[in-house]
UniProtKB/TrEMBL annotation:
Protein name: Uncharacterized protein
Membrane-spanning ranges: 49-72
Organism superkingdom: Eukaryota
Keywords: Membrane, Transmembrane, Transmembrane helix
Protein source organism: Aspergillus ibericus CBS 121593
Length: 115
């Protein structure tokens, strides 16, 4: 290398060493992403007020009828169980009464034979 080549190199090295270490941050407003237009979503077909009203009414009526159906079904089951218990109690009471009447008839027959 010649002397002139070294002199040319030194300013190049000096410029690298002199460059500031602080690099300012890029502002958010100048980012290329923000300059692009936002992607558009496909337009939804609007539901008319009449169709929406009918749909709301039918869904509400369906929910109310399902609630009433299950409420009545529960009440029916409870009433059926109570009726079954009452019938069982009536049958056992009738059976006890028949045995009591049978015992009384045998005692009355024994008393009439003694006389």
């Amino acid at each position: 290398m010649t002397m002139t080549a070294c002199k040319r190199m030194v300013p190049a090295l000096r410029s690298v060493a002199i460059k500031p270490a602080f690099v300012p941050a890029r502002s958010f407003s100048v980012s290329p992403f923000m300059r692009e237009p936002a992607p558009t979503l496909p337009a939804k077909k609007p539901v008319g007020a009449f169709r929406g009203g009918i749909f709301g009414f039918l869904s509400g009526a369906l929910a109310a009828s399902a609630g009433v159906y299950f409420y009545i079904l529960g009440e029916y089951r409870i009433a059926n169980e109570m009726l079954t218990e009452d019938i069982t109690a009536l049958q056992s009471a009738t059976q006890r009464l028949q045995t009591y009447i049978g015992e009384l008839e045998t005692k009355v027959d024994q008393l009439q034979k003694k006389k």
